[in-house]
Amino acid sequence: MPEAPKTSRKANDFIVAEENKKALQFIEEVTTKADEVQKRVLAEILSRNADVEYLQRHGLNGYTDRETFKKVMPVITYEDIQPDIIRIANGDKSPIFCSQPISEFLTSSGTSGGERKLMPTTEEELGRRSLLYSLLMPVMSQFVPDLEKGKAMYFLFIKSEAKTPGGLLARPVLTSYYKSPHFKNRRPDPYTNYTSPNEAILCPDSYQSMYSQMLCGLCQNAQVLRVGAVFASGFIRAIRFLEKHWPLLCEDIRTGTINTDLITDPSVREAVMKILKPDPELADFIEAECSKKSWQGIITRLWPNTKYVDVIVTGTMSQYIPTLDYYSNGLPLVCTMYASSECYFGVNLNPLCKPEDVSYTLIPTMCYFEFLPILRNNGAMDSISTPKSLSEKEQQKLVDLVDVKIGQEYELVVTTYAGLYRYRVGDVLRVAGFKNNAPQFNFICRKNVVLSIDSDKTDEVELQNGMKNAVGHLMPFDAHVTEYTSYADTTTIPGHYVLFWEINVNGTTPIPPSVFEDCCLAVEESLNSVYRQGRASDKSIGPLEIRIVEIGTFDKLMDYAISLGASINQYKTPRCVKFAPIIELLNSRVMSNYFSPKCPKWVPGHKQWNNMN
User: Fold this and answer.
1) Alpha helices of 256-279 — where are they, by DSSP H?
2) 350: enclosing H helix or E strand
3) What is the arithmetic mean of pLDDT over 166-179?
4) Environment class of residue 22 by beta-carbon count within 10 Å: exposed (0-12), middle (13-18) or buried (19+)?
5) What is the pLDDT of residue 8?
6) What pLDDT, on the 0 to 100 scale, is given for residue 281?
7) What is the pTM of this model?
8) What phi and psi values does residue 368 have, to the nearest 5 degrees?
9) Burial of 516 (0-12, 13-18, 19+ CB in 10 A)
10) Quick one: which H or E segment has residue 312?
11) In angstroms, rounded to a whole number, what is the distance separating the alpha carbons of residues 403 and 409?
12) Where is the GH3 middle domain positioned along the sequence (predicted)?
């Protein structure tokens, strides 16, 4: 029987070029007709969901025009719809938000009452996410040619999932995507040619997953043209893993066998063995590089054809830029897309820009966008004023996608196909410019977030609650905390939270170190489930540390702030510090430090579901 004709390299190049052209044309069209597309998207969402309970409850009565929608539907936060979310989680299958069945919940890294927020989603949304992914490489190929001729070494992982009492899966958005047919059964595409086999990505054991992905990446080092992970913190963890385990990895490459004591998952072993071949020369090369005293530029040394590092370095992830520059010898750090559990939003059309200049063009077909203008309190960078619930007058201030003003900051509000209506995402964005008629935004921060190392987001209220639970351990010694502040220390891998405490001791009995360690653990036990999962399961966050500072340290801190122009009448101790000179001042006055002795308790799912089991 004759063989089917093989597709030539030339034909493949033509297909890739045509696909790229179509994707770029799509971006051109939807950004040019941004307002028209937005009007259509809103009408489509409202008409297909006209009979759902939530829209009926607010009296929309089948109207699909913008004016009626804005007049009738309130701007909301998660807490406003939480009772309805709980109904769906408990098994209510009636169309509450969406005419299509809710297929699962996507668990947000944002929390409510210490538990992950649950975002309802539908099967159709996977297609919409895939569309946004399909735009990334056509954009990138304009700046870095021939990426289709090599591989991507991306460290991708799944996280634990749980079932709601009603039987719906609840899991992070990327876990949902990687486990979907859209990812697992993706058609052969030179842009999704990863060094990691699917079995390694989908392995639930994070150690086995990391080891096998790193092993496959090293085996194919000459073919690697780009490297990355979702967050900067995740990629740095992978490099740190290599620092610890390169002797074992070299041994596997030298012999062409995989260590069965380390990799116990048979499907992972089988997938890796298809890639792994005995290569003593490569093992010697990796060993020589990893044995050197300095690891500066280790990425370009081990993967010499790498063109860029694809990771998120905006927002709190910007704290990892110096470390990435060190390991990569200053390779471009590329942020390709802007997305959340609620919805995928936009792409970076200038991916080789500097991290501080990253702006995302919102794609008007993804959802219906609105923007709540932000007012900063006295121009203070850490003080953003957006009331929890909005008056009718404040709701009228929301502006449409095409009406935002350059330089102005806004909170993002979305209406999605999966059934969120005028939902406040909590992201603060600044308008940087326009692509045709679609705005481009710098990501400024998450509203109210004080501390973050990985995907965790801890706000001031949680931190204060943790403090309250911790200081009880000092009472038997007649001691109390007079002042405190915090910062996210990313000089350690993984990074960890640091609390600076100034304490007043009236008692005569010295406070044993174990008491301060108990204080550390008490704070951790009080923090949200995303933080506790990062500590106990993902190992993406290190033990919390308390540093005891000299009496008078916080007076020095105030003096320093006043010397920089702060008003003595309005000065309040910041509950989180990021400014290097302030951290230096605090560190110079540390008398002792203590770490949490063990991981805080964490189990998958929500507390109330676990109580029902």
Assistant:
1) 266-273
2) none
3) 87
4) exposed
5) 43
6) 94
7) 0.74
8) -100, 120
9) buried
10) strand 308-312
11) 13
12) 360-446
What burial letters (b/e) apply to 80-98, b meaning 16+ CB within 10 Å?
ebeebbbebbeeeeebbbb
Amino acid at 294: S
- For 194-204, the pLDDT digits (tens) are 899 999 999 98
Average pLDDT rounded to a whole number, residues 439-456: 79
354, 387 contact by CB (below 8 A): no
Q: How far is CA 377 from CA 92, 383, 407, 459, in A?
A: 43, 6, 17, 18
Please determine, for residue 345, whether its predicted confidence score (pLDDT) is greater than 70: yes
CA 163 to chain centre: 22
- Whole-angstrom Cα distance, residue 391 to residue 399? 15
- Amino acid, single-letter form, for residue 192: T
Pick the closest to residue 572 from 552, 584, 554, 590 (CA basis): 554
Res. 166 pLDDT band, cuts 50 70 90: confident
Residue 288: pLDDT above 70? Answer: yes
Q: Report CA 530 to chain centroid distance, whole Å.
A: 11
Q: Is the previous residue joined to 494 through a cis bond, with omega within 30 degrees of 0?
A: yes
Query: How far apart, in whole angstroms, are the C-alpha atoms of residue 42 and residue 49?
Result: 11
pLDDT in tens, 398-425: 899 899 999 998 999 999 998 899 999 8
Which residues on adjacent β-strands are paired with residue 170?
105, 162
SS3 18: helix
The letter for the amino acid at 397 is K
CA distance 395 to 372: 8
d(CA 118, CA 109): 10
